[in-house]
Fold:
Amino acid sequence: MQTDIITVTNGGVGAKEAIEEAVKFAVYTGLDDKSALRVRLLAEETIGMVEALTGEFVADFHIENDKKCAVRICLTIKTLMDFAKKKDLIEASSSKKNAAAKGFMGKIRQIIENGLYSIDEVGSLQNEYGTINYLNLGMNEVAPGSAIHAVDYMWSLENYRNSVGDAVTSGDEQKKEAWDELEKSIVANIADDVRVGVKGNTVEMVIEKRQF
Structure:
C-alpha cells in the first residue's frame, strides 16, 4: 500500500499531516504497537530533518510497503532557490561552506543541502566524511528494486556502515565518532538502509525497514 502524498516544507507546513499518515499506515497494515511506534519515530525524524534544512525547500512525503519491504518512508525534496540565492547563502557562511554536521541525521541533512547547492560542495563533504558513492547516470547504476530513480550519485547507509565499521580496530578517530553517532541514532538503529539520491535540483531519500 501507499499513503497519501503530503507536501511538507522546512517552515513546518505539512508536518502534522505527515505524522498522521504514519499513524494511519501502521493501522492499515496491522502493525503491532512496537512496530507502529518505530514507523512513527522514523517519520518524526524525517520531518525533523526537513525542518532543519537551510534555505527554501519543499518536499513530497509518503510511506509505502510491498512484499519485499515492511516500510519505506519516501521523501522527494526540491529547492526553491535559484543559483543566486544558493550563492548568497554559501557566501553568508564565514567559512564559505556549511559547518560540519553533528549527528547522523545532521549528516543526511548536509548531504541533501550540499547536493542541491553544488556538486563541488558535495565533493568536499565526501573528502571530510568519506560517505558518498558517486554513480553514473542510469538505473543500471542503482541496486535492483531500489525506490531511488536514476541519479547523478547516491549515498547509502549500508555503504556508510561498512566504511566506518572497523572504527574500533582501525583506531581512526573520525570513523569512531561516526560509528558512535550511528549507535546513538534512532534512524540508524531502526532502519535497514537509508538511500539519498541526487538528480539535478531534486533529492530523493528513502528510509527502508525490510521487516518487523
